[in-house]
Amino acid sequence: MQHYCEEELKFCQALPKIELHAHLNGSLRDATIRKLAIKRQLDPSLTKLIEKGDRTLSECFKLFDVIHQITTDHETITGIASEVVEDFAADNVRYLELRTTPKTRSEHGMTKRSYTEAVLKGMQEAQGRQRASKGRSIAVRLLLSIDRREDAAAALETVQLAAELQSRGVVGIDLSGNPTLGQWSTWEPALQEARRQGLKITLHAAEVYNPAETEAMLHFRPDRLGHMCCLDERLEALHYSTGIPVELCLSSNIITESVASYPEHHFHPFYSAGHPVILCTDDSGVFSTSLSKEFAIAAQAFQFSRLQLWQISEAAIDHTFLNEEEKQDLRKEFENARLKLQAEKCS
Ligand SMILES: CNc1ncnc2c1ncn2[C@@H]1O[C@H](COP(=O)(O)O)[C@@H](O)[C@H]1O
Ligand SMILES: [Zn+2]
């Protein structure tokens, strides 16, 4: 069943957009996954796992482990980073905050640093190609993710790397991975260090019901939170009182069965209460979506007008990890896009 209307999708594609929650290895094209699976001679039973369909949250994490088996060397990492940036740009995303987990792979001579440099290279290559062909490019920044399977030392290594690469476009730290694994106390010291180093922080929170952890995360006061699907009334009130912006990913939450249906998604109560919300894709490849589709789904599920869609899109600028001057540039870009669309309508 299609959860959006084609006419609305066209409008959402024309809308300039901001993507703040996208995992690199979750955003791969189908064709790229198939090509890499052949190249790496992936076991056919694993290739089958990659084929699209509904997947529970635990199946998703198995799938990420399979994708990680085919995105192993520096050249591939650079290639997928470049492709993902291109895909977001083609969807009229004007600013992308991409996130990825730096990986160590001794068999490929890969360290967390060399992995991250390969990603930065791919991002720059895509931007360079766009500038050459169109005279302008999507703006991109990188967040480094700590995987919940990592220990305190690995988390700190990622934070130190992010701090060293701030001048190269790394703006923050994300905590993600299977929400049923690990303990908040393991990563908190590294996240405190990230804050001391001037990095911004976003946490995957309440993807499953874990009130003690969610409360600890709220007390930590990250700059943004992701998901917040499984809250009780007390935590919901606490979250509202903090005013921390929340990255919401409709398709991801429905497909992984964290939320029962689109109209019941917590995007709407947060939005209606005036709490800062940002529509995001999470894993556009794994969930066969795009940011335009997520906007079109929101339009249908919550009966948003086009003006409301525009306002939701533009408001995300305030919650980026950019400085004020950079945010101002994006606001100007949105204004120019608005004028251009109006002129096209009148002509
Ligand atoms: C579906 N909801 C989710 N919840 C939690 N973590 C998720 C996620 N989707 C993706 N990731 C995190 O991102 C990694 C893949 O991209 P990178 O290898 O880092 O580029 C996954 O292994 C997981 O750690
Ligand atoms: Zn995520």
Automatic annotation (TrEMBL):
The keyword Metal-binding applies. It catalyses: N(6)-methyl-AMP + H2O + H(+) = IMP + methylamine. GO terms for biological process: adenosine catabolic process; inosine biosynthetic process; nucleotide metabolic process. Pfam families: A_deaminase. One of its GO terms (molecular function) is metal ion binding. Its cofactor is Zn(2+). Residues 16-334 form the Adenosine deaminase domain. Keywords: Hydrolase, Metal-binding, Nucleotide metabolism, Zinc. Belongs to the metallo-dependent hydrolases superfamily. Adenosine and AMP deaminases family. PANTHER family: ADENOSINE DEAMINASE, ADENOSINE DEAMINASE-LIKE PROTEIN. Monomer. This is Adenosine/AMP deaminase family protein. The lineage of its organism: Eukaryota, Viridiplantae, Chlorophyta, core chlorophytes, Trebouxiophyceae.
